[in-house]
Amino acid sequence: MQKFNFKEQFFTKKYIYRFFFLIVLVLSLLISLFFFFWEKNTVRRMFIFPSISGDLVIEYRNLDKNPVQGEVQYFIDEVLLGSQLERTKKIFTFGTKVLSCFQRDDQLYLDLSSDLLQMGDYVIDIKEGFDILRLNITKNFSDIKTINFFVDGKYAY
Fold first, then answer.
1. Measured distance CA(76)–CA(46) in Å, rounded
2. Which of the chain's termini has less CB crowding within 10 Å, N or C?
């Protein structure tokens, strides 16, 4: 009967490569997990869009935490692009842009381009569009209580 020697059996040339491969694999996994949980540069936002059937559709997206134009304007730009889901309507016509967007205390001043005044296919009513945009903003930014909408510098709603 032979005595089992752990050192001789597992640290031979045959197994030493497997051992180092396993060590490298475990270390790379730990480093990956560390950087994954270290700091996420995104924030999860909820988007609400009208569907063709008349209901509201909720969609979630991860957006940058610190965009160049500011969190609120970046969010509004994403809302104006529309839904990534099929069978939804756009809030405003294609080409509507944010001309200016700034927040003072709990009020948001939002100036949109006059492209939203045009009607198109799969676009909801303008008043309903402002209501859904207001709903999107207030659901995602709790510090904003009042939203003043402007179209090409003229007060809208």
1. 12
2. N
Strand partners, 16: none
At 69-85, the pLDDT tens digits run 899 999 999 999 999 98
* pLDDT value for 121: 78
The Cβ of residue 58 has, within 10 Å, a number of other Cβ atoms equal to 11
Give the separation between CA 74 and CA 101, rounded to whole angstroms.
10
Hey, what's the torsion of the CAs at 102, 103, 108, 112, to 10 degrees? 10
Could you tell me if 118 and 93 are in contact, meaning their C-beta atoms sit under 8 angstroms apart? yes
**Residue bearing the bigger pLDDT, 132 or 8:** 132
Is the confidence at residue 157, as pLDDT, over 80?
Answer: no
Query: Looking at the DSSP assignment, which residues form a beta bridge with residue 56?
Result: 50
For residue 118, give the amino acid letter.
Answer: Q
> Cα angle vertex 114, ends 143, 70, to 5°?
30
Instruction: Tell me: pLDDT of 39 over 80.
Output: no
Closest CA to 151 of 127, 116, 103, 107: 116
